[in-house]
UniProtKB/TrEMBL annotation:
Keywords, alphabetical: Endoplasmic reticulum, Membrane, Transmembrane, Transmembrane helix
GO cellular component, one term: neuron projection
UniProt source species: Neolamprologus brichardi
Protein name listed in UniProt: Reticulon
Lineage of origin: Eukaryota, Metazoa, Chordata, Craniata, Vertebrata
Domain Reticulon: 21-208
GO process terms (BP): brain development; endoplasmic reticulum tubular network formation; neuron differentiation
Domain of life: Eukaryota
Membrane topology recorded in Swiss-Prot or TrEMBL: Multi-pass membrane protein
Length: 208
């Protein structure tokens, strides 16, 4: 019974975190989403100008300055008002943050599964198990060479963050039109792939 209760509690916690992430990306709470979005962008832009060590040290100093100042302020306030409210961060200090053995095993199993899947897929592509898939992968890598020449890793990360906080809202507002265009593009791509497969001897046709 206790094990089932723990599993249910973890599933509820995961659902809660997932719901909060969706709310952030869809700007359900404008102030909260704006704060997270601006903070992440500020961090990424800082990394474009300074080293990771410097940015990490400055963030740690800023956090420590805020918590130490707040602790001193609350201590002085309690002394003046002669109250005994205790440590201002007591609730957070008593919060359980350690990962259980079951959680570690669960995450380790997922990482192992993803790693094995990626290794098998890369082996299949590089050793040309399916000629069409390997050609698609080669075209993708060729396009990435041009992307890499135009943008560095941090720039792409910044663009990814901006997309995460804008595309869901745009899709939600214009879902019908976007689905229609995506369907047309998918039809065209499938048509081109079918023609390529028909011209390549021994190419394996894949069912939709």
């Amino acid at each position: 019974m206790q094990g089932a209760a723990d599993v249910t509690k973890k599933e509820c916690s995961w659902s809660s975190w997932k719901g909060q992430a969706i709310d952030l990306l869809y700007w359900r709470n404008v102030k909260q989403s704006g704060a997270v979005f601006s903070s992440v962008l500020l961090l990424l832009f800082s990394l474009t100008q300074f080293s990771v060590v410097s940015v990490g040290a400055y963030l740690a100093l800023a956090a420590l300055s805020a918590t130490i100042s707040f602790r001193i302020y609350k201590s002085v306030l309690q002394a003046v008002q002669k109250t005994d409210e205790g440590h201002p961060f007591k609730a957070y200090l008593e919060m359980e943050i350690a990962l259980s053995q079951d959680q570690i095993s669960k995450y380790a199993d997922k990482i192992l599964l993803y790693t094995n899947t990626c290794m098998k897929e890369l082996r299949r592509l590089f050793l040309v198990q399916d000629l069409v898939d390997s050609l698609k992968f080669a075209v993708l890598m060729w396009l990435l060479t041009y992307v890499g020449a135009l943008f560095n890793g941090l720039t792409l990360l910044i663009l990814a963050v901006v997309s995460m906080f804008t595309l869901p809202v745009v899709y939600e507002k214009h879902q019908a039109q976007i689905d229609q265009y995506v369907g047309l593009i998918r039809t065209q791509v499938n048509s081109v792939v079918g023609k390529i497969q028909a011209k390549i001897p021994g190419a394996k046709r894949k069912e939709e």
